[in-house]
Structure formats: C-alpha cells, structure tokens
Amino acid sequence: MPALWIAHVSVTDEEAYGKYAKAAGPAIAQHGGTFVARGARYVQLEGKDRARNVVARFDTLEAAVACYHSDEYQAALAFAKGASERDLCVVETTE
C-alpha cells in the first residue's frame, strides 16, 4: 500500500537547511519517493504552525522508513539538525 512522508518544518538556519534540501531530494528519489508538495502555499487550521510543509509519496510504508534510515538520507539530515525544528511521520494511504 502506498505511503506518504509528511514533514512540518520551521527553518532556523537557511544556509544549513539549504544543504539538507539539496541532498535530501536525491536520497528520497533514490528510494522511490516523489514529492507531492514541497514548500507550497498552505493554510494552518490546527496545531503548531511550521512554515515549510513537505509531502512525498512512496510505494510502501517500509520504503519510506528505509529511506529515512538510509546512509544517504541520514547524511542529508545531518544538515537539518540544529538548522530546523521538524515533525515527520509516514502514513499509509487508503488507496
């Protein structure tokens, strides 16, 4: 069953986070992820507002989790740590 990787992000260091974004995209693509939304317009209706919202689609929940734990993504994530506050979850779709 397909799954969505959903991230809500507040960037605190644009330069470092830019390095993360540059490296994370190819890592996500390498694991079959495709971006559905990435920093697009949004309306916060409930909860904590984070200015950057990203949704990527993967073939399975397991593929999304494997991507997160991959060496390539973890190398990219090192740039985001200390440069952002993030919430990230992976949820299966109902397709």
From TrEMBL:
Coiled-coil positions: none
Pfam families, per the entry: DUF1330
All copies of domain DUF1330, residue ranges: 2-93
Alphabetical list of InterPro entries matching this protein: Dimeric_a/b-barrel, DUF1330
UniProt-recorded name of the protein: DUF1330 domain-containing protein
Organism: Aquimixticola soesokkakensis
